[in-house]
Amino acid sequence: MAEVSEKFIVKTDVEEADETSLMDYLKVLWKWKRLILGGTLLCMILAAIISLLMPKVYRATALLLITDPKIEGTWATGTIRLPPIGTYVEMIKSQGVATRAIEKLGLDNPPYQLTSEDLVNEILSVESMRGTNLIRIASEYKDPEKARDIANVVAITAVELNRTLNEGEAVRSRDFLKTQLDEASQALAKAEQELLAFKETAEIDKLRKEVEILLKGKERLELELLEINQMIEEQNTVVDVLGKKLGNEKKILVLSRSISNDLIMKDVVQEVSKLPPLDLLGIQAKDEFINPLYQALEPKLVEALSGLEGLKVGKAVLTRDLEANGKRLTDLQKELAQREIKLENLTRTYELAKEVYKSLKQRFEEARIQVASKTQELKVVDSAVIPENPIKPNRKMNVLTAGAVALLGLMIFAFLLESISRYRVKPSIQTTLDSSLP
Q1: Is residue 275 classed as helix, strand or coil in its secondary structure?
Q2: pTM for this one?
């Protein structure tokens, strides 16, 4: 009998399983419709109430653009490798950027009291836009103005941090060279100004011409002095010759003759002296007269001496002029040498300053190109604005989601309850069959 009962139950289950259709499911749902609809409605009401009680959350976004280096190329160190966009995303999400942004906005003070972890994990979201060099920075906060400020300040802080990181050795070298270049430019301008001012006031060309004139005057005076010395020597020779000739001649010549030979003189002497003619035989008469040669040489000697004195006076004048010329020439040559030395020093200083400036300028341009070729810049291309509508809570979505989940869950729960009720019916059938069999 037990075997017959077991077969009957198995057969009944199989028949029931075969006969289950869509209508059966609908009947089950209709049977539990109050539970399903009531529970779904209750969940939707609860979701609406919770959404109304939840604080509003606003979302503000800012866009950053990663600009490529202005100059592309390679350096001696190898091919330039630029960081991927993901590097900038992680940099923006770093604790350092978050801490700076919080300090700038004062969010670490009451009533906010935010930490960098709160900002990065709960408020801030950073993502790159696929296929572009753009990075979106979004901040979600209950205050729309603060949401805007957080997005903008984080973007600006990221730009500043990137600029600071780019200011590496090349940038410091460029800035150092720029300072040196400015100093060299000032030194060059000063040296050029001093050189031009000295050229205008030194009058070196005028001094050179004056020295040249004095040199020619010196040559002329020396030549004239040489000529006058020769003339003096010649005049001395003439004076010596005339002096010797004049010394050999007597100025007064005496001519002696006997009175007896001069009848007139004899008669005059005899008449005066009353001497006898015989006594007059021993008397000599002397005649004195100027030596005509002496008389001819003496004026020549005087003239030669006068000419010699004139030559000596001329020599003295030439000597004095030559000395004055020499003194003036020496002074001018000394002054010219000093000014030329100063001009040379100023010119050398100017040329040196020019070379230094040229070298520094070339090095600065190289450093500037190197910096421009190695650095990527972050730029804010779209600042965040105050959002008008909150993104959270989305009341409609919350109510609909709660209704859909509740409906699905309650339907499953209804099927579960129906299955449980059927399993409870089977033991009662078995008991009935057992009692009906003999």
Answers
A1: coil
A2: 0.44
